[in-house]
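re: that complex we talked abt at group meeting.

here r the seqs, copy pasted straight from the sheet so there may be weird spacing, ignore it
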Amino acid sequence: MADASKPGAAKGRFVTTTVEVEGRTEQRVVEMPAFEPEPWGADAQLTHVGARALRTDGALKTTGHPGYTTDIRRANQAYAAIVRATVPRGRITAVDLGAARALPGVLDVLIAADVPARTRLFNAEITYTGQPIAAVCAITQEIADAAARLVRAAVESLPFAVTVEQALESGPVRPRIENNLVGGKPLVLERGDVAQALAAADVTITREVRTPCALHSAMEPHCAVAEWDGDHLTVWESTQGIYRVRDNVAKALGIPLTNVRVICEAMGGGFGAKNFAGPHTYIAAIFAQRLGRAVACTVDRLGEQIDTGNRPSSWQRITLGATRDGRLTAIDLEARIPIGVGGAEGGPGGIYHELYACPNVRTRETSAFVNTAAMAAFRAPGHAEGSVGLEIAMNTLARELGIDPLELRMRNFATRDQKKDRPYTGNRLAECYEEGARRIGWHGREATKAAVIKAAATNSAGSRGAHLKRGYGVAAQVWSTGGGPPCYCNIRFNNDGTADVMAGSQDLGTGTRTILAQVAAEALGHTLSGVRAVIGDTASAPFAGNSWGSMTVASLAPAVRMAAEDARRSLLDAAAGLLGVSAADLETRDGRVMVRDTDRSLSFAEVTAKLGNVMIQGQGSRGPNPQDAGIVTTGAQFAEIEVDTETGVVRVLRIVAVHDAGRIVNPTLAESQLEGGIIQGLGFALFEERRLDARFGMPLNVGLHEYKVPTHADMPLIDGHFLDGADPKANHVGVRGIAEPAIIPTAPAIAGAVADALGVEVNELPMTPWRVLGALRGD
Amino acid sequence: MNLSINGQPVAADVPGSTTLLELLRDTLALTGTKRACDIGECGACTVLVDGRPIYACLTLAHACEGQSVRTIEGLGAPGTPHALQDAFVAEDAAQCGFCTPGQLMAAAALLAENADPSDAEVIAALSGNLCRCGTYPKIVRAVRRAATTLRTATDG
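got the structure back, here u go
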């Protein structure tokens, strides 16, 4: 089934292809699948795919025992705790472990001299507050924590830099770099001629916008439990990538990959911070080997908030040029991002090249290493920050031109993938705008605002409500969500007719298990309860990539479908022999093989029981994406807010979200993820900000009380909607991703609504009461 | 010390510094109650002591001498779920599920006092329970759904 649009279709089995991960483009070798099923088009008649199936692990989660790493209790398990640096930069001259070792119940202590260099643990050179400098292990977590507090390190403090400005004037802030700029120099990307286009523009506007450093704050902290059996190591890890953790651990410890097994049965949230093995992983593994017993290393909440990744802050200066009738002619971004000591991911510039049609775009990002904890991908890294700057500037331009902000966006709809000058497989953003506008009442919003003011004026309670201003905002998003290879799935039938769907993926809470079962049940013609996804264990399932970049479903679903079709062929061959008919006369539905146009049938259980231990199996792999089209999820979100001009408090009343994400395998799970992204975006807009004491380089608000994530009490009404349809050009299941697209437009839509309500802009997030009042005062 | 956990008498020999959370998770391996912050900021360790919702991480085990503790394991099991657990599954009110036991126990305390809570009452009762996946809207729907189920069962 060769397809000329697929790369290398006629060239051979192993070809090089391009995939996009977290906004980056990577070249990879892929294996061409042995066959590709015909795409399920938008009008395909499907039973399980598209159904509102309940989470298959819902009962386990609601009874508290789905198998989190932090709940693992191995026989004789010991517990580790990490000792952390309390200065941003310095050199350790001595470590006093005496008091810690002397505490009853302490089993072992680790410092730099005890660990393989490739773990990079406990470096004598401290480069950020919170850096691990030692670890202790004890018979209980309480004792380990107490012992960690008894470790004393003598540290010679060194000058540090925590802002981009400080870093630009400072020598290297960490080892192994020559200057503090990521990549050695600012990253400049330009198409067209921005300087000329700005000079020729009818109208130009410039805005400066700041976004905060945000913390992932997953409820389950990072945790690893390690146990050795001879020279074989099993690691239970709360992770977004079991295979990557396996690779990291084997490399760091210098042991063969086949000796490492990584398991993640269930995990309590990641959001980008759990993509790799970490210090806790290596500490657990090393202690476990030294002590000959299982060791758990759970990062405590302080460590979780200061040293497991963050979305770095950004400063953005945006200049837009446009014609009088609102066509963008130039987009210019200057950005500064202090990324911490490492972990660079896509910056805010990416979305400026994609979201709106514009021939001249230049982004100049100065990303600097600074003496704070390394950043990590955090749900739509770069785009979530960049969209705030771009969309605030678009609103400013709309006011300058006297054009409705929604109309301005529709006039600049990007019909093509401008980064690579190619079409999209599909992009129905224009429909998202229209559907969202209808749902929020966009075109009647001025009447609603007037009615609110009138109601406040006539309120019998006097002036109550007169200081409450209503506002509306809109923002859009684009994010590459095509997924891609490599990615495999094996399916095997048990001889009671049930089928196991095995893939080396993991379920972060998104519902991966359920989705894989739905796709397999569909392609097999099985019942949903007859299919079980076996994931989260490198020992039992072939490779699947990290659950990141909104690519899990788009990567895995085609591999699962192919494996299911493969298994179904074998099942039909076996059934044909049993029924004395040709396989071509058979079809499958609800776990039965039926002879077409007759009432003869066998259940899968009857077929497999007759086969005994002759096993029906299927193999599937993920083929490459089309190279001649971009695969994106687009969408628009609208915010309706109320701001109190006396207190500065912003309350989000309603968010309408409409996205084009191709085929939705499970609308309930997709809506859950959409709501989750919106709620995190709401936190980014209004509450969340890791603050640093610049004098001491210390994070100030590191608990879940001072670092404010949204609560029940902050919830708006959320109306999340996906356009019906499928994207069969993207892959043969017709799916794209949704996790990251959900968060991107929320904060800028809220910012637009606040500006609409107040008549002044608040261009620094989060829009806390004091920033709102400052903007009202004209600060 | 002696206390009752999920209706069973429990005798435990733990130091005075041991929290109820450590007693449950580490001594008794009742790991359904979660440890997410350990300093009373997130609500993941919410359990009921004599019917009142408390943070197990901020409660000393010895302070529960003679009292009755109810944890998620005592609310219901996969084969015999409580109406709240059924409702959380039906409304997809658990994504990663890590905050879920705490949300459920806070909700159980609410429904014991108020059989027909409004959205605002559910929100007020559960505002000490953080969720990072963003299940809040569905949790409120699930609690109200369970309340309806329980009232119907009582009325019936």
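couple things i noticed - The radius of gyration of chain B is 15 Å. Chain B touches chain A through 58 residues (CB under 8 Å).
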